[in-house]
Design goal:
Helix 16 links the parallel strand 21 and strand 22. Helix 8 runs parallel beside helix 12 and helix 8 runs antiparallel to helix 16. The mean pLDDT is about 95. This protein has about 600 residues and is of the alpha/beta class. The strands form 4 sheets. Strands 3-2-4-1-10-9-11-15 form an 8-stranded antiparallel β-sheet, covered by helices on one side. A 7-stranded antiparallel β-sheet has the order 5-6-7-8-12-13-14. It has 18 helices and 25 strands. The protein binds 5-amino-5-deoxy-1-O-phosphono-D-mannitol (M6R). 5-amino-5-deoxy-1-O-phosphono-D-mannitol binds next to helix 8.
């Protein structure tokens, strides 16, 4: 996720901005840049890679500036694509966080009127739009430019003729930091905490003009007052947005991640170019770990919604035994785009003549260079080793892909799309009741073994739930199709082994209740995950984690978020080091 900083005051802007950008490093970035106003000119610095020591850089002296850490979305990581971006005359500099979805048409339009572009980014159109609209009033020009933007944005702009900064927020966060004789604006609180703990969180549609000793906020054309908050956190706490761990913060980012990923591919209708699917007779997913579980859900969706036969292979096994590939579409799923096993599987698939699509989170990663087609998830950087929001983003892309390829009647597809659109709200509702999940976690935290069971789509959800539990709480957790228990795993059940049972509101429901009764007969404690309307399940189990009722295919989202929280609170109760579990790495770059 990109980071934004703006400064006006009495200190050297370059030093303040670079050190503030370092405070945003936890968000992840591939390149960065700063613009400082001096006299009636702009001085810029742009670099790829880490910032390093603040003292290494010195721009011209000046007390107004803006800076940015970039997590590439449109255009590869490079100095040219790094922000700030400027207009044709280098008078206006802009930093932006978010996605401008109509940037291509704006760019063409601006080019036809003589504007010259230097980068591949969506952001650069903003600088040129403001240039077009500027008649001496920067705020007015910003307002007019913003009217033409579609997408999500937090933008800060400066002009060489002005002793001010102007910023606007729509669906991307921005906070004002209020100092004495100085003002800050940033995408997150840690950027300003070295200087002030008095902040204002801007709201959607807010536009703000800032001077070194004041600011005005407008919304909908009217001046508005916003509450000043005093932040009690340390810098370290604030990097986690006040959450105790990155994992919890990232789980709480899920609604926004779903919005961003839907936004990328769903405007009026599903906007995924599926030309890669022409003439294929089967789909093979390759992936590892959590991405492997997303693939299992992908297979379920593809087979259920499209009728195209699909298989899933562990990338590490595909390497030794690639299946015969003829008219096969290989879909590699990888958050990092750097997992060595997945990359090797992709290379082998290509060598065998398959078309390869990558569903990937990190722009410019190796997977994006190997793949023939790329579908990005918009999860932003994920810092906790345990994948949470990125897994849900993978599912969202898979829903969209399966629906796009679906042969279901149009009305049914539309119904599912409508439900997909409200998934951010549904996940918010789960997060609002997380204290109930925390209470249940306290009941199971002292066990050393657990069993997760499900049927149908519940099986891969159970597998991912068990993986989350084992990797962060160090509890041995196994996942089984509920029907398999009687073929062996029953021997493991008893008072010492709680069972997490996933209830899906589909044809598997009744038989799952029977399985739960069988488990209870073996004296295991049972925690069920079921929807709010299910009045039956609580008769048979010890605890129920309730989630909003959805179409059964979307339980992969609802139940998984609930299980992520269950794993998190269980690990927390056990005092585990949640964000960096022992023996694990975020990105596994060795085979
Ligand atoms: O970056 P990738 O999605 O390729 O990573 C694959 C696995 O290493 C990863 O999903 C891992 O299982 C998770 N971090 C576990 O939470």
């Amino acid at each position: 996720m990109c980071g934004i900083v703006g400064y006006l005051g009495f200190r050297r802007a370059d030093q303040v901005i670079i050190s503030a950008l370092k405070r945003l490093e936890y968000r992840g970035y591939d390149s960065w840049g700063v613009a400082v106003k001096h006299g009636n000119g702009l001085e810029l610095i742009k670099r790829v890679g880490a910032i390093g020591d603040v003292e290494n850089y010195s721009l011209a002296e000046g007390n107004i500036g803006i800076g940015h850490t970039r997590w590439a979305t449109h255009g590869k990581p490079s100095e040219i694509n790094a922000h700030p971006h400027t207009d044709c005359n280098n008078k206006i500099a802009v930093v932006h966080n978010g996605i401008i979805s109509n940037f291509q048409s704006l760019r063409e339009d601006l080019k036809s009127r003589g504007h010259e572009f230097t980068s591949e980014t969506d952001t650069e159109v903003i600088a040129h739009l403001i240039e077009e609209e500027y008649r001496g009033d920067l705020k007015e020009a910003m307002m007019k430019a913003v009217e033409r933007l579609k997408g999500s944005y937090a933008i800060v702009v400066m002009h060489v003729d002005k002793e001010e900064l102007v910023a606007v927020r729509y669906k991307s966060p921005l906070v004002i930091g209020i100092g004495d004789g100085e003002c800050f604006i940033a995408s997150d609180v840690p950027a300003v905490l070295d200087y002030t703990n008095r902040v204002i969180y801007l709201e959607d549609g807010d536009i703000v003009k800032m001077w070194n000793n004041g600011f005005i906020i407008w919304n909908n054309g009217k001046e508005v007052e916003r509450k000043i908050d005093t932040i009690p956190w340390s810098i370290e706490d604030s990097e986690k947005g006040g959450y105790e761990h990155f994992m919890l913060k990232e789980i709480h980012e899920t609604p926004r991640v779903i919005e961003d990923t839907l936004f990328e591919y769903l405007s009026e209708d599903i906007d995924i170019d599926v030309s890669f699917s022409a003439g294929i007779s089967e789909i093979v997913f390759v992936a590892c770990g959590t991405s492997y579980h997303a693939s299992l859900i992908g297979r379920y969706l593809i087979e259920k919604l499209t009728g195209i036969p699909a298989r899933v292979e562990f990338a590490s096994e595909f390497i030794y035994n690639p299946p015969p590939i003829s008219r096969t579409l290989v879909i590699a799923i990888t958050q990092s785009g750097e997992t060595a096993d997945t990359l090797e599987a992709m290379r082998i698939a290509k060598k065998h003549g398959a078309r390869v699509v990558a569903i990937v989170n990190v722009l410019g990663s190796t997977a994006t260079r190997i793949a023939d087609y790329i579908l990005y998830t918009r999860a932003g950087p994920e810092i906790s080793v345990a994948a949470t929001k990125s897994f849900i983003a993978q599912l969202i892309v898979l829903y969209l892909l399966a629906l796009k390829l679906s042969k279901l009647p149009g009305s049914e597809i539309e119904k599912l799309i409508e439900e997909l659109r409200i998934m951010p709200e549904i996940v918010r509702r789960i997060l609002e009741h997380e204290e109930k999940i925390e209470q249940i976690a306290e009941e199971i935290a002292n066990f050393e073994d657990m069993m997760y069971i499900g049927r149908g789509i519940g099986v891969p959800i159970a597998m991912e739930g068990a993986l989350k539990m084992k990797e962060i709480s160090y509890i041995h957790a196994e996942a089984y199709p509920a029907g398999e228990l009687k073929h062996g795993p029953f021997a493991l059940l008893g008072k010492h082994t709680p069972v997490i049972a996933l209830l899906i509101p589909d044809e598997t429901y009744e038989i799952m209740l029977n399985n739960i009764k069988e488990v209870k007969a073996r004296e295991s404690l049972v925690v069920a995950v079921a929807d709010e309307d299910d009045a039956e399940v609580e008769k048979y189990v010890d605890f129920v984690i309730r989630v909003p009722k959805t179409n059964s295919v979307f339980t992969a989202v609802t139940h998984s978020v609930a299980l992520q929280l269950l794993a998190y609170y269980t690990a927390r109760k056990r005092g585990c080091e949640i964000d960096k579990p022992r023996n694990l790495a975020k990105s596994v770059t060795v085979e």
